[in-house]
Amino acid sequence: MATLVGKAWISRNCAKSLFSCYAIFPRVSSTTKTHFSTHEDPFGINKKKTADSPGAKEQVSKGLPKKFPIAGVKQVIVVASGKGGVGKSTVAVNLALALADNDKDKQVGLLDADVYGPSIPRMMNLEGQVFLNEQNLMMPLVNFGIKCMSMGFLVDEGSPVVWRGLMVMSAIQRLLRQVAWGPLDYLVIDMPPGTGDTQLTLSQNIPISGAVIVSTPQDIALLDARKGAEMFKKVQVPVLGIVQNMSVFHCPKCGHEEHIFGEEGANKLAQEMGLEILGDIPLHTKIRELCDSGKPVVVSEEGSPQALAFKNIARKVVEKLPAWEDPFPAGNKT
Ligand SMILES: Nc1ncnc2c1ncn2[C@@H]1O[C@H](COP(=O)(O)OP(=O)(O)O)[C@@H](O)[C@H]1O
Ligand SMILES: [Mg+2]
Ligand SMILES: [Zn+2]
C-alpha cells in the first residue's frame, strides 16, 4: 500500500509525518527526531549535524557524488536565469508541455527546483498529497500528462522554507533521486534565480543535456542572464540558447506592438556570448492569467501565437540537444 508524504500529514499529524519522512530517508536515524520540526524540515535533514558543525561544508564537498544519471531519465534540460521574475517558471512549464505536444511519443517531467519559491503547483494546477511507491520512491503528481515534483507538494504554501545551503542541497538531491521519475525522455528543471547552491548541486550531481537561459531585454536582467550562462559554461553544461521573454507588448485593445524594454538587448548578449536566441515570448496578459491560474497557454490556447512561440522554442531545444547516449548499453546492464 502506498504511503502518504508531505503537507497533508504535516498539517494534520506531525508525528505521523515525521515518521513517514524517516521511512523515505532511512539514513536519518530515529534518535535525531526531536531536533527539528517537520514544518521547517519535511525531509528530516538534521540541521545540527550538517550546516552547523565546523568543517561540515568542506567534508560534504570532498565527498560529493560523481555525476550519474537519474534512473530512467534520458535528458535533463534546465531553465535558468540570473534573476527572479523574468519568466523562468512560465517558460519551464510551457516548454515541458510543448515538448510533449510536439512529439506525442515523448514522456516529459517537470521538477521544480525552486525550493524557496515553488511555482509549479499553481502553474500546473496540482496539489499534493505525495505517495510512496513500493520502492519507497515519491510518486510525481501528474497533470496534462506531465509528471511533476515540487517542494510545494511537501510543505504548506503559507509556511516559508527557512533552510540553509546544505539543507537545500540535500533536498535537491532527494528530489532528483528519491522520486519515481522514469521512464522519461525529457526532465525539465525549473531553477531558482541566481547561481547558488541549487545550480551547483544539480550540475555536480547529474549530467545535464542543456541549459535554456531566460531573460527579459532589460540591461539588468541581461547582465544576470550572462552570469547564469557563464556559470553553466564553467561547469561544462551546454547552454542551448536564450529565450527572450516579455520582449514585445501586444496591446490587447488595438493590437499594436511595443518593445517596452528595448529591442536588441538579448540579440547583443547572444552575439557576444556566441549563443542563439531560441525564441521570443511576447508580454501578453493571457500568458500571465492562464499560467497563474493553472491553465498554461500551450494547453489552453493551443493555436494562439503565444502557444506557437513556445512550441517553436521546444523544437529548437530538441534540435540543439546533444544526441542521447545510453550510459548502460546492452550487455553492460547489471
Ligand atoms: N510573457 C509573459 N507575459 C505576461 N506575463 C508573464 C510572461 N512571462 C511571465 N509572466 C508573468 O510574470 C510573473 C513571473 O513569472 P515567473 O515565470 O514566475 O518568473 P520566475 O520563475 O523567473 O521568477 C508571473 O506572474 C508570470 O505569469
Ligand atoms: Mg520561478
Ligand atoms: Zn493599444
Q: How would you portray this structure in words?
A:
With 334 residues, the chain is an alpha/beta fold. It folds into two domains: 3-62, no CATH class; 73-320, Rossmann fold (3-Layer(aba) Sandwich). The protein has helices at 7-12, 14-24, 56-62, 88-102, 120-123, 165-177, 197-205, 219-234, 265-273, 285-292, 297-300, 305-320, and strands at residues 3-5, 73-80, 108-112, 130-132, 141-143, 146-150, 184-190, 210-215, 239-250, 257-258, 277-283. Bound molecules: adenosine-5'-diphosphate, magnesium ion and zinc ion. Zinc ion is lined by residues 251, 253-254, 256. Zinc ion (ZN) binds at residues 251, 253-254, 256.
Strand content: 15-25%
Please provide the count of β strands: 11
Coarse structural class: alpha/beta
State the order of secondary-structure elements, H for helix, E for strand: EHHHEHEHEEEHEHEHEEHEHHH
CATH class of the largest domain, named Alpha Beta
Low-pLDDT parts are 7-39, 45-56
Helix content: 25-40%
Mean pLDDT: 80
Whole-number total of structural domains: 2
Q: What gap, in angstroms, lies between the N and C termini?
A: 28 Å
Radius of gyration: 20 Å
Any ligands, ions or cofactors bound here, and which? Answer: adenosine-5'-diphosphate, magnesium ion, zinc ion
Largest sheet: 9 strands, mixed
Number of helical regions? 12
Assigned CATH superfamily of the largest domain: P-loop containing nucleotide triphosphate hydrolases
Q: How would you sum up the global shape?
A: globular
- Named CATH architecture of the largest domain: 3-Layer(aba) Sandwich
GO molecular function: 4 iron, 4 sulfur cluster binding; ATP binding; ATP-dependent FeS chaperone activity; metal ion binding
Protein name: Iron-sulfur cluster transfer protein NUBPL
Function: Iron-sulfur cluster transfer protein involved in the assembly of the mitochondrial membrane respiratory chain NADH dehydrogenase (Complex I). May deliver one or more Fe-S clusters to complex I subunits.
Cofactor: [4Fe-4S] cluster
